[in-house]
Design brief:
This protein is α+β, with helices and mostly antiparallel strands. It has two helices and three strands. It has a single domain, classed as Metal Transport, Frataxin, Chain A. It has a three-stranded antiparallel sheet, with helices on one face. InterPro entries: HicA_mRNA_interferase.
Length: 68
């Protein structure tokens, strides 16, 4: 798993997996897929996702039944 990834690339990956994206207040964004839900805060001012966000995104996809 990469240590760094631009947030827009992570969000694009989640969207391409078919997630329902719900914009929240501020930088909050929620992803839903197959009953699994993940909520993230878009990083700012840094453009890169944090390591824990990459880990959480992977766990979310696994819970939703998406395998690498």
């Amino acid at each position: 798993m990469p240590k760094t990834l631009e947030w827009v690339r992570l969000e694009s990956l989640l969207r391409s997996a078919g997630t329902n994206v719900i914009e929240g207040r501020g930088s909050r964004v929620r992803f839903e897929l197959n009953g699994a839900v993940a909520t993230f805060h878009r990083p700012h001012p840094d453009k890169h996702a944090k390591t824990y966000q990459l880990r959480d995104a992977r766990q979310f996809l696994e819970q939703a039944g998406v395998t690498p």
